[in-house]
Specification:
Elements: H1 4-22, E1 25-26, E2 35-38, E3 43-46, E4 53-54, H2 78-81, H3 89-104, H4 126-135, H5 146-158, H6 170-176
Antiparallel strand pairs: 1-4, 2-3
Helix pairs in contact: 1-3, 1-5, 3-4
InterPro entries: Kinase-like_dom_sf, Prot_kinase_dom, Ser/Thr_kinase_AS, Ser/Thr_Kinases-Pseudokinases
Protein name: Lymphokine-activated killer T-cell-originated protein kinase
GO molecular function: ATP binding; protein serine/threonine kinase activity
């Protein structure tokens, strides 16, 4: 059985995959406060779609000049903060910050990759840390898609021998950078 933080990460990634690929929407304000947890981590659901923006077939804002990215500043991707090109990868940066928030239980960051605490983490956290680092890449093109994250998290839970100590396993690093 996966730890609760992996379940939450997978549920959020599934929600983002649905938004980005099926509905062609950028959440635009992804943060821990916009994730609802049912019961004892039975399910995690995205909420607050009030600032969602339409995406084109390539995952970029459909009308970048007509609509502006609003999001909560400290959870926003660097490109959103400086007026750069905003794509679905902005949500993935915020997803990375959510992972950091789950691990560290803090929200002390602003539009950049926060450092990890000095507290040692067990090997169980290594795959999630790899995903955190990939999602918080400064260059949006280097960030994985929500679908890639779902695939990785599913592989972690499906393959019992890889549920612990996968930080050194190049399989997960390769999966993170496929098709980027």
């Amino acid at each position: 059985m996966s730890p609760p933080y992996v379940k939450v990460a997978r549920d959020v990634a599934c929600g983002l995959q649905y938004l980005h690929e099926e509905k062609k929407l950028l959440h635009g304000d992804l943060k821990s406060g916009n994730i609802l947890i049912q019961g004892d981590f039975k399910a995690a659901k995205l909420c607050d779609f009030g600032v969602s923006l339409k995406l084109d077939e390539k995952g970029a804002l459909r009308e970048p000049d007509a609509q502006c990215y609003i999001g909560t500043e400290c959870w926003s991707a660097p490109e959103a903060l400086v007026g750069g090109v905003v794509t679905h990868k902005a949500d993935m940066f915020s997803f990375g910050l959510i992972l950091w928030n789950i691990i560290v239980i803090s929200c002390d960051f602003l539009g950049s990759r926060p450092s990890l605490p000095d507290t040692p983490l067990t090997e169980d956290y290594l795959p999630v840390l790899e995903i955190f680092y990939a999602c918080t890449e400064a260059e949006p093109a280097k960030r994985p898609s929500a679908g890639q994250i779902v695939h990785i998290l599913d592989s972690m839970t499906d393959d019992k021998e890889n549920t612990k100590g996968v930080g050194g396993n190049s399989k997960f690093l390769e999966m993170l950078h496929e098709d980027l």
